[in-house]
Amino acid sequence: MATTPVPGGSPAPAAPTGRATTTRRPRVGVVKFASCDGCQLTLLDCEDELLAVAGAFEIADFREASSSVLGGPFDLALVEGSITTAEDRERIRAIRANAKRLVTIGACATSGGIQALRNFVPAFEEFRRAVYARPEYVAGLATSTPIRDHVAVDLELRGCPISKAQLLEVIGAFLGDRRPDLPTESVCAECKRRGQVCVVVARGMPCLGPVTQTGCGAICPRFHRGCYGCFGPAERANLTAELVQLETLGLSEAARRNVFATFNANAPEFRAVHAPSAPPPEARR
Predict the structure, then answer these.
(1) Helix (H, G, I), strand (E, B) or coil at 79
(2) Is the previous residue joined to 268 through a cis bond, with omega within 30 degrees of 0?
(3) Distance between CA atoms of 240 and 256, rounded to whole angstroms?
(4) pTM of the prediction?
(5) pLDDT (0 to 100) of residue 186
(6) Phi-psi category of residue 18: left, alpha or beta, with phi > 0 → left and psi -120 to 50 → alpha
(7) Does residue 231 sit in the same domain as residue 155?
């Protein structure tokens, strides 16, 4: 049987020659919750591979790209964004019920995103009144939580935004019915492979590279900036050693905590550092 290359390097069976056959393409839905749309745009940014992706799937719902919406059920649902309203909480359950596989994409979907800073505000209503001119028109929960807190998730793809290469690897693995090959090492390992001079050692800059999962290509250290933790905590991250290093660089206790209060502030490992006494988000729902 001949094979047709697909994104991610995995071949998918092609129709045998000599007779007419119809092979159903997997149906994919790309759906959004509370987010900036950047991770959906990563798919559209796959310029050289986009036609191959469109040919391999029936894109049933991708409102960032098309107003044509066929709806579920989906063989694969790519979900961006966090849950911040009661309506979204019900919607993600309906999507899960209509999806064979569900993959969350981006920091918002995998940890709650930058908007999860609301989780650590003691008086959320006061916070809302300070931000919005007419807070009575803004319906929302007191928390921003990842998708996995509400439904079963088959795979989480981290990043703010996600990596195009990793997204294509996930798509290719789905088509090839295999486990995706995704890195779990720290950004420091990426810097070493690239021969990048350490910004902590050479410039005395705070950097979360030692405790952050790689995936960005170490883009911030390459431009002489410390890592901001966009891809969330790495496996077996030594946060105690990281805090000692930040103190050595002269950061106050408050500054050391704030370093972790960004895109993945609600990730359990980072939350334990910058808000150790805060109740878990589920206690405020």
Answers:
(1) strand
(2) no
(3) 11
(4) 0.87
(5) 96
(6) left
(7) no
